[in-house]
Amino acid sequence: MNMTKVAIIHSEEVPGSPANYTESHMLFVKSMIKEALDFLGGVKKFIREGDRVVIKLNVTGPVVPEQLSTTDPRVVEALINLIREEAGAKEITVVDCSAFAIDTELAFLGSGIALAVQRAGGKLFALEKDEYQEVEIPGAKVLRRVRLPRTIREADVLINVPKMKTHIYTTVTLALKNQHGYLLWGDKLRFHRTDLDQKLSDLYRAVKPDLAIVDGICAMQGQGPHSAYPEDLINDMNVIIAGTDCVAVDAVTSAVMGFDPLEVKTTRIAFSEGLGEADLSKIEVRGKKIQEVRRVFRRPDADPRGISPYLKVYVGAACIGCLGLIRGLVDAFTTPYVDLLGDISFVVGKNSELPSDIRGSVYVVGDCSEEHKEKGKFFPGCPPFLDLIKEFQDWDALGVPRQKQR
Ligand code: SF4
Protein backbone atom coordinates (compact mmCIF):
# COMPACT_ATOMS: atom_id res chain seq x y z
CA MET A 1 0.00 0.00 0.00
CA ASN A 2 1.25 3.49 -0.87
CA MET A 3 1.17 5.32 2.46
CA THR A 4 1.36 9.08 2.93
CA LYS A 5 4.87 9.96 4.08
CA VAL A 6 5.89 12.56 6.62
CA ALA A 7 9.51 13.16 7.58
CA ILE A 8 10.65 14.30 11.02
CA ILE A 9 14.17 15.61 11.44
CA HIS A 10 15.51 16.47 14.87
CA SER A 11 18.80 17.77 16.17
CA GLU A 12 19.81 17.92 19.85
CA GLU A 13 20.94 21.46 19.20
CA VAL A 14 20.46 23.97 16.40
CA PRO A 15 23.10 26.70 16.34
CA GLY A 16 22.26 30.39 16.27
CA SER A 17 18.87 31.95 16.97
CA PRO A 18 16.12 33.36 14.73
CA ALA A 19 17.36 36.88 15.48
CA ASN A 20 21.07 36.25 15.38
CA TYR A 21 22.72 33.68 13.16
CA THR A 22 25.69 33.21 10.88
CA GLU A 23 26.06 31.51 7.54
CA SER A 24 27.25 28.29 9.17
CA HIS A 25 24.13 28.29 11.41
CA MET A 26 21.96 28.70 8.31
CA LEU A 27 23.85 25.86 6.58
CA PHE A 28 23.09 23.61 9.55
CA VAL A 29 19.36 24.31 9.17
CA LYS A 30 19.69 23.76 5.42
CA SER A 31 21.09 20.29 6.05
CA MET A 32 18.06 19.51 8.25
CA ILE A 33 15.60 20.62 5.54
CA LYS A 34 17.56 18.69 2.91
CA GLU A 35 17.44 15.55 5.03
CA ALA A 36 13.67 15.93 5.43
CA LEU A 37 13.14 16.35 1.69
CA ASP A 38 15.51 13.44 0.94
CA PHE A 39 13.17 11.22 2.97
CA LEU A 40 10.39 12.32 0.61
CA GLY A 41 12.36 11.66 -2.57
CA GLY A 42 14.69 14.67 -2.75
CA VAL A 43 14.31 18.30 -3.82
CA LYS A 44 14.38 17.41 -7.52
CA LYS A 45 11.32 15.26 -7.13
CA PHE A 46 9.32 18.41 -6.44
CA ILE A 47 11.15 21.14 -8.35
CA ARG A 48 12.43 21.14 -11.92
CA GLU A 49 14.96 23.45 -13.45
CA GLY A 50 13.29 26.68 -14.55
CA ASP A 51 10.30 26.34 -12.20
CA ARG A 52 8.77 29.37 -10.53
CA VAL A 53 8.63 28.43 -6.88
CA VAL A 54 6.42 30.22 -4.38
CA ILE A 55 7.09 29.85 -0.65
CA LYS A 56 4.23 30.79 1.66
CA LEU A 57 5.52 31.67 5.12
CA ASN A 58 3.80 32.58 8.35
CA VAL A 59 4.49 36.32 8.69
CA THR A 60 1.46 37.50 10.60
CA GLY A 61 2.94 40.85 11.58
CA PRO A 62 6.07 42.95 12.13
CA VAL A 63 7.03 40.87 15.15
CA VAL A 64 10.71 40.51 15.98
CA PRO A 65 12.01 37.00 15.22
CA GLU A 66 12.76 36.18 18.87
CA GLN A 67 9.02 36.39 19.62
CA LEU A 68 8.71 33.14 17.62
CA SER A 69 5.47 34.20 15.91
CA THR A 70 6.83 34.10 12.38
CA THR A 71 8.76 31.61 10.27
CA ASP A 72 12.41 31.47 11.36
CA PRO A 73 14.65 33.55 9.04
CA ARG A 74 17.23 30.71 9.19
CA VAL A 75 14.67 28.36 7.65
CA VAL A 76 13.72 30.85 4.95
CA GLU A 77 17.30 31.57 3.90
CA ALA A 78 18.21 27.89 4.03
CA LEU A 79 15.22 26.79 1.97
CA ILE A 80 15.82 29.34 -0.79
CA ASN A 81 19.48 28.34 -1.02
CA LEU A 82 18.61 24.65 -1.08
CA ILE A 83 16.05 25.02 -3.85
CA ARG A 84 18.30 27.13 -6.02
CA GLU A 85 21.40 24.98 -5.58
CA GLU A 86 19.74 21.56 -5.83
CA ALA A 87 17.01 22.16 -8.39
CA GLY A 88 17.96 25.29 -10.33
CA ALA A 89 14.59 27.00 -9.85
CA LYS A 90 14.13 30.02 -12.12
CA GLU A 91 12.47 32.25 -9.58
CA ILE A 92 11.84 31.83 -5.87
CA THR A 93 9.24 34.17 -4.41
CA VAL A 94 8.46 34.39 -0.73
CA VAL A 95 4.92 35.56 0.00
CA ASP A 96 2.34 36.24 2.67
CA CYS A 97 -0.61 38.51 3.37
CA SER A 98 -0.29 39.42 7.04
CA ALA A 99 -3.06 39.47 9.63
CA PHE A 100 -5.88 42.00 9.65
CA ALA A 101 -4.88 45.41 8.31
CA ILE A 102 -1.15 44.85 8.79
CA ASP A 103 1.11 45.96 5.94
CA THR A 104 2.90 42.75 4.88
CA GLU A 105 5.96 44.63 3.64
CA LEU A 106 6.40 46.08 7.11
CA ALA A 107 5.88 42.61 8.55
CA PHE A 108 8.62 41.22 6.27
CA LEU A 109 10.99 43.91 7.51
CA GLY A 110 10.13 43.64 11.20
CA SER A 111 10.28 39.86 11.33
CA GLY A 112 13.75 39.60 9.77
CA ILE A 113 12.31 37.84 6.70
CA ALA A 114 13.20 40.64 4.27
CA LEU A 115 16.88 40.43 5.18
CA ALA A 116 16.93 36.61 4.98
CA VAL A 117 15.30 36.62 1.53
CA GLN A 118 17.62 39.35 0.28
CA ARG A 119 20.68 37.42 1.48
CA ALA A 120 19.53 34.26 -0.28
CA GLY A 121 18.67 36.06 -3.52
CA GLY A 122 14.93 35.38 -3.48
CA LYS A 123 12.07 37.75 -4.21
CA LEU A 124 9.58 39.08 -1.67
CA PHE A 125 5.98 39.75 -2.50
CA ALA A 126 3.11 41.04 -0.35
CA LEU A 127 0.06 39.17 -1.60
CA GLU A 128 -2.34 42.03 -0.90
CA LYS A 129 -0.70 43.77 -3.90
CA ASP A 130 -1.52 40.84 -6.19
CA GLU A 131 -4.30 40.43 -8.71
CA TYR A 132 -7.05 38.38 -7.10
CA GLN A 133 -9.60 36.25 -8.90
CA GLU A 134 -12.77 34.86 -7.40
CA VAL A 135 -13.02 31.09 -7.66
CA GLU A 136 -15.68 28.60 -6.67
CA ILE A 137 -14.75 25.82 -4.30
CA PRO A 138 -16.81 22.73 -5.20
CA GLY A 139 -17.73 20.68 -2.14
CA ALA A 140 -17.02 23.55 0.29
CA LYS A 141 -19.38 23.89 3.25
CA VAL A 142 -18.87 27.57 4.14
CA LEU A 143 -16.18 29.04 1.89
CA ARG A 144 -18.00 28.36 -1.37
CA ARG A 145 -16.38 31.24 -3.20
CA VAL A 146 -13.08 32.93 -2.42
CA ARG A 147 -10.69 35.39 -4.01
CA LEU A 148 -7.24 33.87 -4.56
CA PRO A 149 -4.03 35.66 -5.61
CA ARG A 150 -2.57 35.07 -9.03
CA THR A 151 0.87 34.26 -7.59
CA ILE A 152 -0.58 31.29 -5.73
CA ARG A 153 -2.79 30.14 -8.61
CA GLU A 154 0.05 30.25 -11.14
CA ALA A 155 2.98 28.91 -9.09
CA ASP A 156 4.74 25.94 -10.67
CA VAL A 157 5.58 24.73 -7.18
CA LEU A 158 3.92 25.95 -3.99
CA ILE A 159 5.66 25.32 -0.67
CA ASN A 160 3.78 25.98 2.55
CA VAL A 161 6.12 26.80 5.46
CA PRO A 162 4.17 27.27 8.71
CA LYS A 163 5.61 27.89 12.14
CA MET A 164 5.02 25.27 14.83
CA LYS A 165 2.59 27.13 17.09
CA THR A 166 -0.56 26.84 19.09
CA HIS A 167 -3.52 29.11 18.36
CA ILE A 168 -6.38 30.16 20.60
CA TYR A 169 -8.92 29.80 17.77
CA THR A 170 -7.74 26.63 16.07
CA THR A 171 -5.68 24.85 18.79
CA VAL A 172 -2.64 24.75 16.48
CA THR A 173 -1.67 26.81 13.48
CA LEU A 174 0.18 24.58 11.02
CA ALA A 175 -0.08 23.82 7.30
CA LEU A 176 -3.87 24.07 6.93
CA LYS A 177 -4.14 27.25 9.00
CA ASN A 178 -1.16 28.84 7.27
CA GLN A 179 -3.18 28.86 4.04
CA HIS A 180 -5.43 31.52 5.57
CA GLY A 181 -2.63 33.93 4.71
CA TYR A 182 -3.51 33.74 0.99
CA LEU A 183 -6.70 35.65 1.69
CA LEU A 184 -7.29 39.37 1.60
CA TRP A 185 -8.25 40.94 4.93
CA GLY A 186 -11.96 41.09 4.07
CA ASP A 187 -11.97 37.36 3.36
CA LYS A 188 -9.94 36.66 6.48
CA LEU A 189 -12.73 38.29 8.49
CA ARG A 190 -15.46 36.20 6.88
CA PHE A 191 -16.14 32.98 8.82
CA HIS A 192 -13.69 33.80 11.61
CA ARG A 193 -15.84 32.24 14.33
CA THR A 194 -16.66 28.64 15.17
CA ASP A 195 -16.82 28.16 11.39
CA LEU A 196 -13.12 28.97 10.96
CA ASP A 197 -12.05 25.29 11.09
CA GLN A 198 -14.49 24.38 8.31
CA LYS A 199 -13.36 27.39 6.31
CA LEU A 200 -9.73 26.22 6.46
CA SER A 201 -10.71 22.74 5.37
CA ASP A 202 -12.70 24.26 2.48
CA LEU A 203 -9.71 26.36 1.50
CA TYR A 204 -7.58 23.21 1.24
CA ARG A 205 -9.94 21.99 -1.48
CA ALA A 206 -8.99 25.08 -3.51
CA VAL A 207 -5.24 25.17 -2.86
CA LYS A 208 -3.08 22.08 -2.35
CA PRO A 209 0.58 22.97 -1.87
CA ASP A 210 3.15 20.63 -3.37
CA LEU A 211 5.03 20.52 -0.08
CA ALA A 212 4.51 21.55 3.52
CA ILE A 213 7.60 22.12 5.64
CA VAL A 214 6.90 22.94 9.30
CA ASP A 215 9.45 25.20 10.95
CA GLY A 216 9.73 23.65 14.38
CA ILE A 217 13.26 24.84 15.11
CA CYS A 218 11.69 27.11 17.73
CA ALA A 219 8.01 26.81 18.64
CA MET A 220 5.18 28.45 20.57
CA GLN A 221 2.88 26.82 23.09
CA GLY A 222 -0.07 28.17 25.08
CA GLN A 223 -1.60 31.48 24.05
CA GLY A 224 -0.48 31.49 20.42
CA PRO A 225 -0.38 32.74 17.76
CA HIS A 226 1.29 35.76 19.43
CA SER A 227 1.75 34.82 23.04
CA ALA A 228 2.63 37.62 25.44
CA TYR A 229 4.06 35.12 27.94
CA PRO A 230 7.81 34.34 27.81
CA GLU A 231 7.22 30.82 29.13
CA ASP A 232 5.23 30.03 25.99
CA LEU A 233 8.35 30.40 23.83
CA ILE A 234 10.15 27.11 23.14
CA ASN A 235 13.61 27.86 21.83
CA ASP A 236 14.90 24.29 21.62
CA MET A 237 12.25 22.25 19.82
CA ASN A 238 14.76 21.68 17.02
CA VAL A 239 12.59 19.85 14.50
CA ILE A 240 11.66 20.14 10.84
CA ILE A 241 8.60 18.19 9.69
CA ALA A 242 7.74 17.82 6.01
CA GLY A 243 5.29 16.07 3.73
CA THR A 244 3.05 16.53 0.72
CA ASP A 245 -0.31 15.96 2.42
CA CYS A 246 -1.07 18.99 4.63
CA VAL A 247 -3.59 17.00 6.68
CA ALA A 248 -0.97 14.32 7.43
CA VAL A 249 1.70 16.91 8.16
CA ASP A 250 -0.65 18.63 10.62
CA ALA A 251 -1.64 15.30 12.19
CA VAL A 252 1.99 14.28 12.77
CA THR A 253 3.06 17.74 13.92
CA SER A 254 0.20 18.08 16.39
CA ALA A 255 1.09 14.64 17.77
CA VAL A 256 4.68 15.88 18.18
CA MET A 257 3.22 18.85 20.10
CA GLY A 258 1.41 16.47 22.45
CA PHE A 259 -2.09 16.70 20.93
CA ASP A 260 -4.30 13.96 19.66
CA PRO A 261 -4.38 14.90 15.94
CA LEU A 262 -8.19 14.74 15.92
CA GLU A 263 -8.32 17.23 18.82
CA VAL A 264 -7.47 19.76 16.12
CA LYS A 265 -10.81 20.47 14.47
CA THR A 266 -9.42 21.60 11.12
CA THR A 267 -7.49 18.34 10.82
CA ARG A 268 -10.52 16.32 11.90
CA ILE A 269 -12.86 18.02 9.43
CA ALA A 270 -10.43 17.78 6.50
CA PHE A 271 -9.77 14.11 7.35
CA SER A 272 -13.49 13.31 7.66
CA GLU A 273 -14.06 14.90 4.25
CA GLY A 274 -11.39 12.72 2.66
CA LEU A 275 -8.99 15.58 1.95
CA GLY A 276 -5.99 13.90 3.57
CA GLU A 277 -4.77 11.36 6.09
CA ALA A 278 -4.91 11.94 9.85
CA ASP A 279 -4.83 8.35 11.05
CA LEU A 280 -1.28 8.03 12.37
CA SER A 281 -1.31 4.27 11.75
CA LYS A 282 -1.71 5.01 8.03
CA ILE A 283 1.06 7.60 7.80
CA GLU A 284 4.61 6.44 7.20
CA VAL A 285 6.77 8.57 9.47
CA ARG A 286 10.38 8.68 8.28
CA GLY A 287 13.41 9.94 10.18
CA LYS A 288 12.66 10.32 13.88
CA LYS A 289 9.64 8.67 15.47
CA ILE A 290 6.92 10.91 16.94
CA GLN A 291 7.63 9.59 20.48
CA GLU A 292 11.33 10.48 20.17
CA VAL A 293 10.62 14.20 19.74
CA ARG A 294 7.19 14.60 21.36
CA ARG A 295 6.60 17.28 24.00
CA VAL A 296 3.34 18.20 25.65
CA PHE A 297 2.61 21.79 24.65
CA ARG A 298 0.48 23.95 26.91
CA ARG A 299 -3.07 24.17 25.52
CA PRO A 300 -4.32 27.52 24.27
CA ASP A 301 -7.30 28.98 26.14
CA ALA A 302 -9.74 31.21 24.25
CA ASP A 303 -11.95 31.99 27.25
CA PRO A 304 -11.43 35.37 28.97
CA ARG A 305 -13.52 34.54 32.07
CA GLY A 306 -11.85 34.49 35.47
CA ILE A 307 -8.38 35.54 34.40
CA SER A 308 -8.33 38.79 36.44
CA PRO A 309 -10.31 40.11 39.40
CA TYR A 310 -10.59 43.43 37.56
CA LEU A 311 -12.15 41.88 34.52
CA LYS A 312 -15.80 40.84 34.48
CA VAL A 313 -17.05 38.93 31.47
CA TYR A 314 -20.80 38.40 31.09
CA VAL A 315 -21.28 35.64 28.56
CA GLY A 316 -24.58 34.58 27.04
CA ALA A 317 -24.83 32.42 23.96
CA ALA A 318 -21.47 33.38 22.50
CA CYS A 319 -18.93 31.70 20.28
CA ILE A 320 -15.15 31.64 20.01
CA GLY A 321 -15.27 34.53 17.52
CA CYS A 322 -15.87 37.16 20.22
CA LEU A 323 -14.51 35.20 23.18
CA GLY A 324 -11.19 34.45 21.50
CA LEU A 325 -10.91 38.03 20.31
CA ILE A 326 -11.35 39.39 23.84
CA ARG A 327 -9.02 36.78 25.34
CA GLY A 328 -6.29 37.43 22.79
CA LEU A 329 -6.45 41.17 23.32
CA VAL A 330 -6.61 40.93 27.11
CA ASP A 331 -3.57 38.64 27.03
CA ALA A 332 -1.66 41.31 25.18
CA PHE A 333 -2.90 44.39 27.10
CA THR A 334 -3.48 43.50 30.71
CA THR A 335 -3.22 44.42 34.39
CA PRO A 336 -1.77 47.93 34.38
CA TYR A 337 -4.47 49.04 32.00
CA VAL A 338 -7.21 47.51 34.06
CA ASP A 339 -5.80 49.23 37.15
CA LEU A 340 -5.67 52.52 35.33
CA LEU A 341 -9.08 52.35 33.83
CA GLY A 342 -10.88 50.84 36.82
CA ASP A 343 -13.19 47.84 36.55
CA ILE A 344 -13.79 46.59 33.06
CA SER A 345 -16.76 44.54 31.98
CA PHE A 346 -17.30 42.76 28.71
CA VAL A 347 -20.76 41.69 27.61
CA VAL A 348 -20.73 38.97 24.98
CA GLY A 349 -23.34 36.84 23.24
CA LYS A 350 -27.11 36.59 23.14
CA ASN A 351 -29.27 36.58 26.26
CA SER A 352 -26.50 37.33 28.72
CA GLU A 353 -27.66 38.09 32.24
CA LEU A 354 -26.26 41.36 33.58
CA PRO A 355 -26.27 42.58 37.19
CA SER A 356 -28.22 45.76 37.85
CA ASP A 357 -25.08 47.44 39.19
CA ILE A 358 -22.72 46.71 36.29
CA ARG A 359 -19.83 49.11 36.90
CA GLY A 360 -16.78 50.62 35.32
CA SER A 361 -16.03 50.63 31.62
CA VAL A 362 -18.49 48.37 29.83
CA TYR A 363 -17.71 46.95 26.40
CA VAL A 364 -20.61 45.31 24.62
CA VAL A 365 -18.97 43.07 22.04
CA GLY A 366 -20.47 41.66 18.86
CA ASP A 367 -23.81 41.65 17.03
CA CYS A 368 -25.16 38.95 19.35
CA SER A 369 -25.04 41.30 22.33
CA GLU A 370 -26.85 44.18 20.64
CA GLU A 371 -29.75 43.96 23.11
CA HIS A 372 -27.35 45.44 25.73
CA LYS A 373 -25.83 48.11 23.52
CA GLU A 374 -27.11 50.93 25.73
CA LYS A 375 -25.18 49.54 28.71
CA GLY A 376 -21.75 50.55 27.45
CA LYS A 377 -19.60 51.07 24.36
CA PHE A 378 -21.02 48.84 21.66
CA PHE A 379 -18.81 47.09 19.09
CA PRO A 380 -21.01 45.74 16.28
CA GLY A 381 -19.62 42.99 14.06
CA CYS A 382 -19.43 39.25 13.98
CA PRO A 383 -16.85 39.35 15.44
CA PRO A 384 -15.87 43.07 15.61
CA PHE A 385 -12.18 42.47 14.94
CA LEU A 386 -10.86 45.76 13.71
CA ASP A 387 -12.79 48.08 16.04
CA LEU A 388 -11.96 46.10 19.17
CA ILE A 389 -8.30 45.80 18.20
CA LYS A 390 -8.26 49.57 17.68
CA GLU A 391 -9.81 50.10 21.12
CA PHE A 392 -7.10 48.00 22.79
CA GLN A 393 -4.40 49.74 20.78
CA ASP A 394 -5.67 53.02 22.21
CA TRP A 395 -5.13 51.57 25.68
CA ASP A 396 -1.61 50.77 24.65
CA ALA A 397 -1.18 54.37 23.52
CA LEU A 398 -1.42 55.38 27.19
CA GLY A 399 2.22 54.32 27.30
CA VAL A 400 2.03 52.18 30.39
CA PRO A 401 4.51 49.29 30.34
CA ARG A 402 2.85 45.95 29.81
CA GLN A 403 2.59 43.43 32.57
CA LYS A 404 1.78 39.86 31.83
CA GLN A 405 -0.65 37.76 33.76
CA ARG A 406 -2.25 34.41 33.36
S1 SF4 B 1 -21.29 38.26 17.33
FE1 SF4 B 1 -22.04 36.31 18.15
S2 SF4 B 1 -21.82 34.79 16.48
FE2 SF4 B 1 -20.62 36.63 15.96
S3 SF4 B 1 -18.58 36.15 16.66
FE3 SF4 B 1 -19.58 37.26 18.31
S4 SF4 B 1 -20.48 35.70 19.65
FE4 SF4 B 1 -19.94 34.71 17.69
Task: Please tag this protein with its features.
single chain, 406 residues, alpha/beta, Rossmann fold, 2 domains, eleven-stranded mixed sheet, four-stranded parallel sheet, 15 helices, 32% helix, 21% strand, globular, disordered C terminus, binds iron/sulfur cluster
CATH architecture of the largest domain: 3-Layer(aba) Sandwich
Mean pLDDT over all positions:
93
User: Total strand count, please?
Assistant: 17
Low-confidence stretches: 398-406
Kindly give the count of domains: 2
- For the record, give the distance between the C-alpha atoms at the N and C termini, rounded to a whole number: 48 Å
User: Can you tell me the CATH class of the largest domain?
Assistant: Alpha Beta
Tally the helices: what do you get? 15
Helix content: 25-40%
Mind telling me the CATH superfamily name of the largest domain? Answer: LarA, N-terminal domain
CATH fold-level assignment of the largest domain: Rossmann fold
Strand content: 15-25%
Q: What integer value in Å does the Rg equal?
A: 21 Å
